[in-house]
Design a protein that fits this description.
- The structure holds 2 protein chains of 2 kinds.
- By secondary structure, chain A is α/β, with parallel strands linked by helices.
- Chain A folds into 5 domains: 46 residues, no CATH class; 260 residues, SGNH hydrolase (Rossmann fold, 3-Layer(aba) Sandwich); 70 residues, Serine Threonine Protein Phosphatase 5, Tetratricopeptide repeat (Alpha Horseshoe); 122 residues, no CATH class; 140 residues, Sandwich (Jelly Rolls), CATH 2.60.120.
- Helix content of chain A is 41%, strand content 14%.
- In chain A, the strands form 4 sheets. In chain A, strands 6-5-7-8-9 form a 5-stranded parallel β-sheet, with helices on both faces. A 5-stranded mixed β-sheet of chain A has the order 10-13-18-15-16. In chain A, strands 11, 12, 14, 17 and 19 form a 5-stranded antiparallel β-sheet that branches.
- In chain A, a hairpin with a 2-residue loop joins β1 and β2.
- The radius of gyration of chain A is 28 Å and the shape is globular.
- The termini of chain A are far apart.
- Chain B is globular, with a radius of gyration of 23 Å.
- Chain B has 3 domains: 146 residues, ATPase, nucleotide binding domain (Nucleotidyltransferase, domain 5); 152 residues, 2-Layer Sandwich (Nucleotidyltransferase, domain 5); 211 residues, DHBP synthase (Alpha-Beta Complex), CATH 3.90.870.
- Chain B starts with a strand and ends in a 16-residue tail after the last helix.
- Chain B is of the alpha/beta class.
- The chains are: A alpha/beta, B alpha/beta.
- Chains A and B meet through α1, α2, α18 and β19 of A and α2, α3, α4, α5 and α10 of B.
- Chain B: InterPro entries: ATPase_NBD (IPR043129), Carbam_trans_C (IPR031730), Carbam_trans_C_sf (IPR038152), Carbtransf_dom (IPR003696), NodU/CmcH_Carbamoyltrnsfr (IPR051338).
- Chain B: Belongs to the NodU/CmcH family.
- Chain B: Keywords: Transferase.
- Chain B: One of its GO terms (molecular function) is transferase activity.
């Protein structure tokens, strides 16, 4: 340390010399190595112990989740803390937890799946389980289930809850979680010291995406270990039994999105071959040519075994041919291949995590309800689908009832010492009202659409919703209204109506319908489906929707930027690049934009500034409302290119129009050496096919 | 020639567009991201500049960056960066800035790196309207320099002497700011506002922190500072020197803290005055241009002008790092074209985005908000607004293009009656939700300013303080020492604000309004319609005057919106305000 608490002035010229050499980027320069050694060996000015501020902030009160401890003569009561009101919608709608009574007390901890997401607070997992148990002869009216499940509960949050909730004096603790436990690729990268990130690149080179997956899975291990330690110390060590429910996934109906199944690891000619195989498979499927279907899917898998799409389509093939075990295996493989966390990653408990949970449970003396195994053995085809799930992991009424029967079977064994066959444990008599079910399916339609699921699945939930109760129509109308508005949803009167009337309370208090700043979806496909389903009750629903779109978003003489969030996507499956780019990036083979035309057959002018990082000299094609004939094509370049072209009036429809930019192939050859940064490493794993700095549309004057 | 200027990656990221030497558009990134002092690549600000200009990125001839990354790296290496963990080293890799410009901003063309203090110097001189001037920049740190002495003339801007890191008046100020419990690069204004309440009882101790040396030099006594280690700004010795531990944020503000603030202010003024005299001796010029964060200390600036040798002073209104983008762009323009920048004084700071009445009406249409529509009748709008202000109402004023720089100057302002005895306390507590001592500034009709203030020239940027001279009581905008930080308003640069002042004068005989920034504590100034609505709804502002529309709280039931907005995820500053990573 220097006498005057600063580095030596004599080092300044050396620092300047080193900086100049480093800026030139010649890493083999001997002088640079010498200088680095000088500065690496020069310790930084040491920190002197920071003084403590005059006073420390007051310690937070004793909480269990959102509930704050309030001692009274009859014991400790817990009330929701008004200071945490912002979080209330994430937890059970219970204001007061009383001291333990004579009843056997079960604590239910978990994630949104344990919340009964989309039915809660009118119906949920805790209600169903409590009802089954209280309707049983063994525990008749002598059980209370304290619902401590939280939407988006993290591993850390769950561990903290485990550490705090023992004060509620449970007789049994149930943990229904695991969907949020897998570390995602970006978390892994961000958690790594910079120097260790090269490990990613080496792994990618030597083991491909499978190796990356191993890294991600191993990274998840250490995170969940802390939870099991806490469970052991808080409950098992005190002879409180713990029951772990391993979640199941909607294997048959939930599909990887277009980023998750983009051609990440196939380059050059193999990429073209994969595309051809995909096209062949789709055609064969349409004509039900099973032999050709299997051949094409097999080719997809040969070319890219780490792409979820091939496995999903193989699963479909096996379902079509009634090969249930093989189908389940294919769907499970597809589920487990998704390791990338976009802005809207779908939680899941994959095979690796399930094994980990089963191992940890056995090691720590925990009981297990292994839903994947139980569904596999008890369902007719062994493959869970939309009848059990509202989306990827959240259970339908049927799913909740089935899962809680399995759970009740274990609870009866643990608390009453009886082992009853499943057939002897009926579901409860509690059934959510038709209005509640209608809203749940409407919420599911939104949720599925916002995750980019198929039109057919979204339609299914819309139909189920309206089928359950016609009263949902007014809520849907309000949704269509505020979705179509340019104004942020939170300000829209239609949204206020939904909140005031409590129509979407099941959707995280209705607040889930709002959006982040500047990230409002226009929801064109979803609104279209909803309006179509409304036509029975409101014949002109589609025309009204079109009118609303035109009045709010109709393109006029002023250019409208299509790369804005509103016009460049219909879901939240965004590739998350941090920091965000100043331009639109496509990691899929085609980019879809929308614009609203005021008049049918009105020609429009487009300006496009774009580039293709890898496919120079090949053509980018623009399609309008049609996938067969481009309305414009131009040669791509790695430098920004600015072009102006017209959209022919005869192809323009009134209201919603779709412009597709199809990026050129072949794909970039992988070059791991080029991935020097975190962003570059991600781009290597999920390459960019095209970039758009600006894409505007306006009417032609 | 289209030149993009960029400041980024330390704090106050911003972007501007200079077209053929004319500054057309400028905005801070924080206004768009809603992260106060956002340092990230100014992607939104850049998009805004290009969109408004109708340009594509291919139309940009040069991107001028406000620092030299290689020189900055040298300073960071010297400070010990190579002894720090790899993560920190990675964040200062030599190619970081260019990578960000290429990959995040997507710019593929020519980049010019302009030294940090040269950017500051250029941002002041080239917009001062002076043909020649001495140039004095003072801030925390750029590359090596923390204080520079230079000249600007027809040949350009040149720096002839500098003080290097870690000796820094900006870091001295920030260290005391942190000691007083305020955020670094965030709370410096608060210290300046606190100073008038104190007595200079700690001047002697304060002088021990910085030793004056010959010429332009000075030196910090690093025993009292710990920012080189990157954990805390001050060392334990500083508290020993003052005899009190550091104040914790939100702890009670005592007379001691005010005395420290006053003592700092006195010492800062002494140093600036002495060094300004030195600069005058070196240059012999009668004009002075100042820039850098310390140049936003308008009290000190006033002393420099009043007691120093210079006859005219120009302080660039975005004198902080955000304004560096302007200087970098101007410097690059001169360098690339060989031409001089137009000799024209910067007239206004309304360089940000504007929203039309149609935009506002469209925003309001699907809401339950009740409003008064004054479209096409600006006189009525101003009269109704003035009447509300007279009634004691607090107004959110959202008009025209957003200001560039840290001051709200009548485009994104909160306005109130300066005569009201409790107005300052009310706005601090209920509207701004900040410390009660924080002062407010007056906006006054330009040609009436001399009736009320000891001011003989326009002060359009609220960068000068002067004494109240009129025998009227304006407690809400007058400091305890009888001074005020004045903004003069003329009908040419902000006709609507001027019309409002006239309307208020007509009905009250007072041509002055309290004017403060349209934001709440911890948030950037509002940028767009949605921001203004949110700020209005979640605070105690009585009335929002937005374009030609007046929205009154008393005519609306806003409780539900308040509830909903409370639940909306808030994005506040992600910066660590305990210390900046100067290494």
């Amino acid at each position: 340390m220097q006498q005057d608490f600063r580095p030596s002035a004599a080092l300044k010229p050396l620092a300047s010399e080193l900086a100049a050499l480093m800026s030139k980027g010649d890493i083999n320069n001997e002088r640079m190595k010498e200088l680095i050694a000088v500065f690496s060996e020069t310790p930084p000015v040491p920190a002197r112990t920071p003084l403590k501020p005059a006073s420390e902030p007051a310690a937070t009160g004793n909480h269990i989740g959102i509930w704050q401890e309030k001692p009274a003569a009859d014991g400790i009561h817990y009330y929701r803390d008004i200071a945490l009101q912002v979080d209330w919608s994430q937890w059970a709608y219970v204001h007061h937890i009383k001291p333990k009574s004579e009843k056997r007390r079960i604590l239910l901890l978990g994630e949104s799946v344990a919340r009964g997401y989309l039915y809660d607070p009118y119906y949920n997992v805790a209600i169903e389980l409590e009802a089954i148990l209280n309707e049983s002869a063994e525990l008749h009216n002598n059980v209370e289930v304290i619902d401590l499940a939280r939407i988006s509960q993290t591993l850390g949050g769950l561990t903290a809850l485990v550490n705090s909730c023992g004060k509620l004096e449970p007789d049994l603790v149930i943990i229904f979680a695991g969907n949020n436990w897998m570390q995602q690729l970006q978390e892994l990268l961000l958690s790594m010291p910079l120097a260790s990130r090269t490990e990613i690149l080496h792994t990618l080179k030597s083991k491909g995406l499978g190796g990356i997956r191993e890294l991600v899975e191993n990274g998840s291990l250490s995170k969940s270990d802390k939870l099991f330690e806490s469970i052991r110390e808080s409950f098992i060590a005190h002879q409180v039994p713990v029951l772990l429910i391993v979640p199941e996934f909607n294997l048959q109906d939930w599909r990887s999105n277009d980023i998750e199944n983009s051609l990440a690891q196939v380059s050059g000619e193999a990429g073209i071959a994969w595309l051809k195989a995909r096209g062949d498979a789709a055609q064969a499927r349409t004509r039900q040519d099973h032999e050709a279907w299997l051949a094409a899917v097999s080719e997809m898998l040969r070319l890219d075994p780490l792409n979820a799409l091939g496995h999903e389509w193989l699963g479909d093939y096996y379902v079509a041919t009634s090969n249930w075990n093989a189908a389940r295996e294919a769907f499970e493989t597809a589920r487990d291949l998704v390791i990338y966390r976009g802005s809207n990653f779908t939680p899941r408990c994959n095979g690796f995590m399930r094994e980990k949970m089963l191992y940890a449970a056995a090691k720590n003396g925990m009981q297990v309800v292994d839903l994947p195994a139980l569904f596999k053995s008890t369902l007719t085809a062994g493959i869970p689908n939309r009848s059990l799930f509202l989306d990827y992991c959240h259970l339908s009424v049927e799913g909740i009832k089935t899962a809680m029967r399995f759970t009740a079977q274990k609870v009866l064994s643990l608390l009453a010492g009886v082992n009853k066959p499943l057939e002897a444990i009926p579901a409860s008599a509690v059934t959510p009202a038709s209005q509640v079910q209608a809203i749940a399916h409407f919420g599911a339609a939104i949720h599925n659409a916002h995750f980019g699921q198929s039109k057919e699945l979204v339609q299914y939930h819309c139909k189920k919703s309206i089928g359950h109760s016609g009263s949902v129509v007014e809520v849907i109308k309000n949704f269509i209204d505020f979705s179509a508005r340019e104004t942020a949803t939170i300000f829209c009167s239609a949204f206020e109506d939904v909140i005031v009337e409590g129509g979407m309370r099941q959707y995280e208090g209705g607040l889930k319908l709002a959006h982040e700043r500047q990230r409002k979806l226009l929801d064109i496909p979803l609104a279209g489906i909803l309006a179509t389903e409304l036509t029975a009750a409101q014949p002109n629903a589609l025309e009204q929707l079109a009118d609303l779109w035109v009045s709010e978003h109709g393109v006029g003489a002023a250019p409208v930027e299509l790369t804005s969030f509103t016009y460049s996507t219909n879901n939240y499956n965004e590739f998350t690049m941090s920091p965000r780019r100043n331009y639109y990036q496509s990691r899929t083979l085609a980019s879809t934009f929308h614009f609203i035309a005021k008049n049918e057959h009105e020609p429009h002018r487009c300006t496009l500034t774009f580039r293709t990082p890898h496919a120079c000299g090949r053509e980018v094609e623009i399609y309008l409302n049609d996938d067969t004939t481009p309305v414009y094509a131009t040669v791509a370049n790695s430098a920004w290119k600015h072009v102006v072209f017209n959209l022919p009036g005869n192809a323009v429809g009134r209201a919603a129009n779709v412009i597709k930019v199809r990026w050129p192939v072949p794909f970039p050859e992988l070059d791991a050496a080029a991935a020097g940064s975190l962003e570059a490493a991600l781009s290597l794993i999920y390459p960019v096919f095209g970039e758009v700095f600006s894409f505007t549309v306006q009417t032609i004057q | 020639m289209n030149i993009i200027g960029v400041s980024a990656f330390f704090h106050d990221a911003a972007c501007c567009l200079l077209q053929n030497g004319i500054l057309k558009y400028a905005a801070e990134e924080e206004r768009f991201t809603r992260r106060k002092a956002d340092a990230s690549a100014p992607i939104h600000a850049m998009k805004y500049c290009l969109r408004e200009a109708g340009l594509s990125i291919t139309d940009i001839d040069c991107l001028a960056y406000y620092e030299d990354p290689s020189k900055k790296l040298a300073r960071q290496i010297w400070s010990g960066i190579l002894g720090h963990p790899g993560e920190l080293l990675g964040s200062v890799s030599p190619g970081h800035v260019e990578t960000q410009i290429r990959e995040v901003l997507g710019y593929q063309g020519q980049i010019k790196y302009v030294d940090h203090h040269l950017s500051h110097s250029a941002s002041s001189f080239y917009f001062s309207g002076f043909r020649e001037s001495a140039v004095f920049t003072v801030d925390g740190v750029g590359e090596w320099a923390t204080t520079t002495y230079g000249v600007g003339n027809a040949k350009g801007v040149k720096i002839f002497e500098e003080v290097d890191f870690p000796d820094s008046l900006g870091l001295l100020y920030s260290t005391i700011t942190s000691y007083l419990g305020f955020g670094v690069n965030d709370g410096e204004y608060k210290v300046m506002g606190l100073a008038p309440y104190g007595a200079p009882g700690y001047v002697k101790q304060m002088r021990r922190l910085v030793q004056m040396e010959a010429g332009g030099k000075y030196k910090l006594d690093m025993r009292y500072f710990d920012f080189l280690a990157g954990i805390c700004m001050y060392s334990p010795e500083l508290a020993e020197l003052f005899g009190r531990p550091p104040r914790m944020e939100d702890a009670e503000m005592e007379q001691f803290h005010m005395d420290i603030a006053k003592s700092l202010q006195v010492v800062l003024e002494e140093i600036l005055l002495e060094k300004a005299r030195y600069l005058h001796d070196c240059t012999g010029m009668e004009n002075l241009c100042m820039a850098g964060g310390v140049a936003l200390n308008c009290v000190a600036n006033g002393k420099v002008l009043k007691h120093g040798p210079f006859k005219q002073l120009f302080v660039q209104p975005a004198a902080n790092d955000a304004g560096g983008c302007m200087g970098a762009a101007a410097y690059a323009y001169v360098d690339l074209t060989g031409e001089s920048m137009p000799v024209e004084k910067m007239k206004h700071v309304y360089l940000g985005p504007a929203y039309t009445n149609n935009d506002i009406k469209k925003f309001l249409a699907p809401t339950n908000i009740i409003y008064t529509d004054c479209t096409g009748d600006p006189d009525r709008l101003c009269t109704l607004t003035a009447e509300k202000i007279k009634e004691g109402k607090v107004i959110g004023w959202f008009q025209g293009r957003m200001e560039f720089g840290p001051r709200s100057l009548g485009a994104r302002s909160i306005l109130a009656d300066p005569r009201h005895p409790s107005m300052r306390e009310r706005i601090n507590a209920m509207v701004k939700k900040r410390e009660g001592f924080r002062p407010f500034a007056p906006a006054v009709i330009e040609h009436r300013a001399a009736e009320y203030f000891d001011l003989d020239h326009p002060s359009p940027f609220m960068l000068e303080t002067c004494q109240m001279i009129a025998d009227v009581s304006l407690p809400a905008i007058t400091h305890v020492d009888g001074s005020a930080r004045v903004q003069t308003v003329n009908p040419h640069t902000n006709p609507r604000f001027y019309a409002l002042l006239e309307a208020f004068d007509r009905i009250t005989g007072c041509p002055i309004l309290l004017n403060t920034s349209f934001n709440i504590k911890g948030e950037p100034i509002v940028c767009n319609i949605e921001d203004a609505m949110k700020c209005f709804i979640t605070t105690d502002i009585d009335c929002l005057v937005i374009g030609d529309f007046i929205i009154s709280r008393e005519e609306n039931s806003l409780e539900l919106l308040q509830f909903l907005l409370m639940h909306e995820r808030s994005i506040y500053s992600t910066l660590n305000h305990n210390v900046y990573t100067f290494v």
